[in-house]
Amino acid sequence: MIPLHDSIPGRRFPTVNTALIVVNFAVFLFYELTNKDAIGQASFFPCDITNACHLGLPWAISWITSMFMHAGWIHILGNMLFLLIFGNNVEDAFGRLGYLAFYLAGGLAGTILQTAVTLLFGTTADAREANLGASGAIAAVLGAYIVLYPKSRIFGLIGWIPLSVPAWFCLGLWFVLQLFAGGSARIHPGAAGGGGVAFFAHIGGFAFGAFVVLILTRARPSYLRPDDQAQARPPRWHDNPLSTKDSAPAAPRTSMTVAPPRGADGPQESTNDGPRPWR
Predict the structure, then answer these.
(1) Model confidence at 99: pLDDT above 80
(2) For the chain, which end, N or C, has fewer CB atoms within 10 Å of the first or last residue's CB respectively?
(3) Is the keyword Protease assigned to this protein (predicted)?
(4) Largest CA distance in the chain
């Protein structure tokens, strides 16, 4: 399913989310397309962690730069479409600086899991493949979104057929497919397109995003939880920072009445363009 938009408008202009999209396109257009060595220079290489190779930038830098690299037009357009649709509401919840930190941390979480799986279960050649792409971070955005807005409607296309499904189904199914494809790729090398897609970066990013939101909402149970009403707004953690004070949080900007919080009920991260991994 190709998502086109969701049923929940943002509270304000998504400054950071828009900036991330602009930066990703700028890097692709003005760095990658004009520099044939760009992927080798700015991608992340798992073997660099163990000092088995020294390719491109040091790994302490390349885990960030690789998140703004893409293997081609389809890769970047798909990733940015997901970020455009789902990122604005998550930025509403975290605030601008909080969202930026969350986005980068989600990308790091995806890189850590993908690297661990590669080094533990992959070959030497696997560890020397370039990892690049924003979808570990975008998967974290999806993980946060499914917890904040499980009942929102996602409108999209399957082929030329328009479809509207709840977020818990759309994103939940995407995550299940990543688990299945990732397991198949590890058990049967080359299966499920495993040579080109970093499924475990998707899995790590998504799990990180969902976990962070669950922890934050449970830490302040009086916050509005938008799982009961699709149009309700997410908690504004940046407006009500965690503290030990007994003062009540500011009232959410909504005219709807919601029940007390209950329990909480995917992009493409890949590993190559041709032989390279990409995400």
Answers:
(1) yes
(2) N
(3) yes
(4) 58
The kind and range of the H/E element at 38 are: helix 38-42
Distance CA 265, CA 197 (A): 27
Measured distance CA(220)–CA(235) in Å, rounded: 10
**Distance separating alpha carbons of residues 78 and 141, to the nearest angstrom:** 14
Class of CATH domain 2-231:
mainly alpha
Residue labelled with tokens 């930066």:
23
Strand 161-166 and strand 2-6: the pairing is unpaired
Sort 133 into a burial class: Cβ within 10 Å, 0-12 / 13-18 / 19+: buried
Write the single-letter amino acid at 51.
Answer: N
Q: How confident is the model at residue 272 (pLDDT cuts 50, 70, 90)?
A: very low
From 33, 78, 72, 100, select the one nearest 174 (Cα to Cα): 78
Measured CA to CA, the distance from residue 192 to residue 270 in angstroms comes to 12
Q: What are 43-79's pLDDT values in tens digits?
A: 999 999 998 888 889 999 999 999 999 999 999 999 9
Per the listing, tokens 């696997």 go with 126
- Which of 128 and 137 is assigned the larger pLDDT? 137
Entry field: residues in the chain: 279
